Amino acid sequence: NSTAFRMAPEHPLVILEVNADALENHRGIIASPNCSTIQMLVALKPIHDKYCIKRVIVSTYQAVSGSGQAAVEELQSQTRAFANGEEILASVYPHQIAFNVLPQIDVFLENGYCKEEMKMILETAKILDPKIKITATTVRVPVIACHSESLNIETEKPFEVEEIKTLMEKSPGIVLEDDPENNVYPFAINAAGKDAVFVGRIRRDFSAENTLNMWCVSDNLRKGAALNTIQIAQEIVKRNLVRVQ
Ligand code: L14
């Protein structure tokens, strides 16, 4: 789950729903992708296979638990301080996170992107398809568990919105929650502690050809981290790929 080997060409970077066969050539190290990348690519894979994705614009709304226990405690203590009218102290993040939204995850790079944004871009090229054009804005929100993502997806082939919903419903690892009339859509506190990638708000983007919008939520510590590595371990046992160097 470390970032160390993710972009090393000789080591596979794997999400079973997307590129399980990449496991076949492993040399003892298999990397599990960044949490924001994993849930996005689980949702994009079936669409790419059927309609060929040209471009993706993603904005994330990321939980503090990605930064560890200290960040969870910082959100809780800042929330208490706010309620009690006390001074709010920030140490894990550069600014107050309680009652705030920070357009920064990890450090900034020379090109103006955050490291997290470049991880999503580079890992998508390695795991799914280097031909997909993709840009990302990654944002920290005062949520304990689950990353949410707004995905704008342009495809080569035309689609019907109903076809996309049906496709999502039958794809592995995905649960469709999409009934706006009854206020049904994925949200963080519903997805927390669960294994699936939840998608909803699927609708046509009328401002561009062959383009759709989708909302995607998953538990960043489950499918975004621990669960994905466990699934990889189970698969290498199943495929008889356990190798000791
Ligand atoms: O790349 O701060 O595995 O929410 C996971 C947690 C990147 C940062 C990774 C966060 C990290 C992310």
What is the terminal-to-terminal distance? Answer: 19 Å
Hetero groups bound?
trans-cyclohexane-1,4-dicarboxylic acid
Note the total helix count: 7
As a whole number of angstroms, the C-alpha radius of gyration is: 18 Å
Classify the oligomer: single chain
Low-confidence stretches: none
Shape: globular
The sequence of SSEs as H and E is HHEHHEEHEHEEH
Roughly what fraction of the amino acids lie in strands? 15-25%
Largest beta-sheet characterization: 6 strands, mixed
Q: How would you state the average pLDDT, rounded?
A: 98
| Helix share, percent | 25-40%
Counting DSSP E segments of at least 2 residues, the number of strands comes to 6
Structural class: alpha/beta
Strand order of the largest sheet: 2-1-3-6-5-4
Task: Describe the protein.
By secondary structure, the chain is of the alpha/beta class. The chain has seven helices and six strands, in the order ααβααββαβαββα. Strand 4 (174-176), helix 6 and strand 5 (197-204) form a beta-alpha-beta unit. Helix 2 crosses helix 7 (222-238). 37% of the residues are buried. The mean pLDDT is 98.
